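for the recovery benchmark. tokens below, seq after
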């Protein structure tokens, strides 16, 4: 929800449609409906004590999740979305009561979470200055990201001139590294800071930019940090929605304090000698964006020709080129980048009956109506956090949504997994695992062979949500239902 809030603000101010098919969308439009739904769903995670759990059915709340939920709900309220005041007050009281103080006994990870919570409270105009000063006394044990958040909290609470804020600002400036036109906060390897959940250079740079912009909007390092955040994207996107949330909010804060001049520019785009677009932007035209679409046949006719962007005039032209395509062949080879994954199909004699041996055929075959056990085996050499396992279901099979009271102990034992949550969708089954120990784990569910034919089995995919480069997948294959 938080990245979508920031993205909506940026899109509305720049006149960029968030739904590509709608060239002149109403302001907000479908995005507002999605945000209202997100608020309603988030409120279902709130516990009786005001805290928030990771899932709607969580038995207890989590300190970090509560802080993150309060952040999102407060940002939504400030943008005019309906958020019950009682839910915000209840969450605030829960967060304040859970803050560990005095802090000397806390480990660095707990100090980081406390800094985040104090910053969230300051954003929500519920600053806790006594705990902020207490946490300042432990700054030597805090990572730079947490120190930047604490500075941000002091500034938002109206204490930018306090000795603590001045010291945190000097500390932040000392640890910013200039890299050409960009700048970045020193990484953990340089500051001997331990690795924490959700840690990333993008998040750290975003926290530093938020703190600098709040302290001094024209700070000479702010523009370089903003450039570093823009350059951190890969393929036009950040690694995770968590990074996107921090980066977009920081860049939006910088943009609001430092609006770019809109000097006119004539923008032209060529594919070889073919003119694709010619548009006046900025200045009196009032236009700041123009899109050109090239169908694949036209792109192939210009194969080998350069794609050229030309700017005429005193303004700056920012541009991107996106290539969209579909594979003719699905990936057939498995991939192990931290997870080794295999998938098998086995027939079940009957509900409650024995699971039969897997077929030795290259393409498993099942009789129409037969119950099938789908089993995914995951191997990881290291413990993993916040893992998502997504298993597409072949078109010929349909997942069976059976309550455990129907299947009894047999079904409960068969489908037992280390996952905190499982979602049975029409075309896939998704598991969410908060903590996955090192070793081998199995994930099973039942499906029924419902349609006759030969069907694609897309690759099963697993990754850590907040370090998506740690991943694995199976190779694609086929399955048959009915006669050979």
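predicted aa per position
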């Amino acid at each position: 929800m938080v990245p979508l809030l920031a993205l909506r603000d940026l899109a509305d101010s720049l006149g960029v449609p968030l739904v590509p098919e709608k060239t002149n969308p109403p302001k907000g439009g479908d995005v507002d409906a999605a945000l209202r739904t997100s608020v309603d769903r988030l409120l279902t995670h709130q516990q009786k004590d005001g805290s928030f759990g990771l899932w709607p059915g969580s038995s207890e709340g989590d300190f970090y999740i509560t802080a993150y939920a309060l952040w999102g709900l407060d940002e939504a309220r400030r943008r005019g979305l309906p958020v019950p005041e009682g839910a915000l007050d209840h969450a605030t009281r829960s967060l304040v009561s859970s803050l560990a103080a005095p802090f000397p006994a806390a480990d660095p990870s707990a100090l980081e979470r406390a800094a985040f919570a104090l910053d969230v409270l300051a954003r929500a105009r519920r600053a806790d200055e006594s705990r902020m000063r207490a946490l300042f006394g432990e700054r030597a044990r805090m990572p730079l990201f947490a120190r930047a958040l604490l500075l941000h909290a002091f500034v938002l609470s109206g204490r930018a001139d306090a000795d603590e804020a001045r010291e945190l600002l000097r500390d932040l400036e000392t640890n910013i590294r200039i890299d050409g036109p960009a700048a970045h906060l020193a990484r953990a390897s340089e500051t001997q800071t331990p690795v924490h959940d959700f840690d990333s250079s993008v998040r750290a740079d975003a926290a530093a930019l938020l703190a600098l912009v709040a302290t001094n909007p024209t700070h000479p390092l702010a523009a370089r940090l903003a450039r570093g955040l823009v350059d951190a994207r890969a393929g036009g996107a950040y690694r995770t929605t968590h990074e996107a949330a921090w980066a977009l909010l920081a860049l939006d804060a910088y943009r609001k304090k430092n609006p770019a001049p809109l000097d006119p520019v004539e923008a032209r785009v060529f594919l070889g000698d073919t003119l694709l677009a010619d548009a006046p932007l900025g200045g009196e035209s009032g236009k700041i964006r123009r899109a050109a679409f090239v169908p694949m046949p036209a792109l192939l006719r210009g194969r080998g020709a350069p794609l050229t962007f030309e700017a005429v005039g005193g303004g700056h032209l920012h541009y991107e080129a996106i290539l969209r395509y579909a594979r003719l062949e699905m990936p057939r080879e498995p991939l192990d980048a931290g997870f080794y994954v295999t998938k098998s199909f086995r027939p079940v004699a009957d509900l409650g009956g024995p699971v039969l041996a897997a077929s030795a055929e290259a393409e498993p075959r099942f009789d129409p109506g037969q119950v099938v056990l789908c089993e995914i085996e995951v191997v990881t050499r290291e413990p993993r956090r916040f893992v998502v396992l997504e298993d597409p279901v072949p078109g010929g099979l349909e997942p069976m949504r059976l309550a455990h009271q129907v299947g009894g102990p047999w079904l409960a034992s068969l489908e037992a997994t280390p996952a905190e949550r499982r979602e049975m969708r029409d075309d896939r089954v998704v598991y969410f695992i908060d903590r996955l120990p090192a070793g081998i784990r199995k994930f099973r569910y039942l499906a029924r062979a419902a349609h006759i034919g030969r069907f694609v089995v897309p690759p099963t995919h697993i990754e850590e949500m907040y370090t998506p480069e740690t991943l694995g997948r199976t190779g694609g294959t086929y399955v048959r239902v009915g006669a050979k």
